[in-house]
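FORM 12-B: Structure-to-Sequence Request
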């Protein structure tokens, strides 16, 4: 008997990608249900070669559903995830609503799979922020080898991280520039076309943004609370794919060659690092791919035991939809959930 899976937020960028990935990976689902808000009820979405009609999240009965992959935003998740969990359905939540709850595991399967056993406290598992997910996939094997003390990361985040509205705004503004129309900024605080914006999410009291704080807090929760993390998060005019320039300080000596060898063997990582023109990955090449790519691995001569590297991944996949599906797969692989018995 297979599982019954609901995808909440099925009409959004990440929800549609979740449906694609469930089908691509041959997830053992007997039934997949697409859910969204009432205004999207009846909308059709694709699941492989099938078409699903979207149902209303607010009226759906989860009592016979095994897993709900939630990508409907933080406020919706706060309202519905606990209720869904109480009906015996495991929620894998893509929003930030429960990431910092000590009773909710925050999981990247390549990084901290053992923490998944804590899910039963609330029947909720949190998916990390898109920029954190790819970062910790690259950091984990290096931390195991040489113990990371400090990480300085600058992100170059695509507009798809801001949803369909962000992608539409980049397209509309770019077209406006070419035809000499007025350029309007609605989704972003400044023009994004042919520009970069050092501001993602709201500002906090210390001058950092919430996005920057998320990278630090989530890295500590998943990898090691002792690691010091500082981040500058920047929105760039790229449709899909987040990039990160990462500087790492280790407790133990580690060379660039050693790091390269370690990362080549690491789960979820692909090293593309040739010291030649084009011998590195850019976000356009990561789009549609599952891997976290690492390039430009080199020693930092300004500190003891320092390395620099360039990390790129498709933020809609590893940063969101793929990681959520991998969490669901991990639940099944570890025998932590079983399909509910069908009513007689």
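FORM 12-B RESPONSE
SEQUENCE OUT:
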């Amino acid at each position: 008997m297979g599982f019954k899976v609901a995808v909440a937020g099925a009409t959004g960028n990440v929800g549609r990608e979740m449906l694609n990935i469930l089908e691509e990976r041959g997830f053992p689902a007997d039934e997949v249900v697409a859910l969204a808000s009432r205004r999207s009820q009846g909308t059709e979405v694709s699941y492989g070669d099938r078409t699903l009609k979207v149902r209303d999240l607010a009226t759906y009965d989860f009592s016979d559903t095994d897993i709900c992959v939630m990508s409907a935003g933080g406020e919706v998740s706060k309202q519905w995830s606990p209720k869904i969990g109480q009906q015996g359905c495991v929620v894998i939540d893509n929003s930030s609503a429960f990431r910092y709850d000590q009773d909710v595991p925050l999981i990247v399967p390549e990084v901290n799979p053992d923490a998944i056993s804590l899910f039963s406290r609330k029947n909720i598992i949190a998916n990390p922020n898109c920029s954190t997910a790819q970062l910790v996939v690259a950091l984990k094997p290096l931390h195991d080898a040489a113990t990371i003390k400090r990480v300085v990361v600058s992100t170059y985040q695509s507009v798809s991280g801001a949803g369909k509205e962000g992608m539409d705004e980049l397209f509309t503004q770019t077209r406006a520039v070419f035809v000499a129309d007025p350029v309007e900024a609605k989704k972003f605080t400044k023009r994004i076309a042919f520009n970069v914006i050092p501001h993602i999410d709201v500002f906090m009291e210390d001058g950092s943004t919430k996005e920057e704080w998320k990278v630090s807090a989530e890295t500590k929760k998943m990898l090691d609370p002792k690691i010091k993390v500082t981040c500058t998060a920047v929105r760039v005019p790229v449709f899909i794919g987040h990039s990160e320039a990462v500087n790492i300080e280790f407790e133990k000596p580690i060379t660039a060659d050693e790091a390269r060898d370690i990362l080549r063997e690491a789960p979820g990582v692909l090293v593309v690092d040739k010291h030649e023109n084009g011998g590195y990955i850019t976000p356009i090449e990561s789009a549609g791919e599952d891997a976290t790519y690492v390039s430009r691995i080199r020693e930092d001569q300004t500190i003891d035991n320092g390395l620099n590297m360039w990390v790129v991944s498709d933020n809609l996949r590893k940063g969101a939809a793929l990681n959520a599906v991998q969490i669901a797969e991990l639940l099944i692989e570890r025998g932590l959930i079983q399909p509910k018995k069908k009513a007689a």
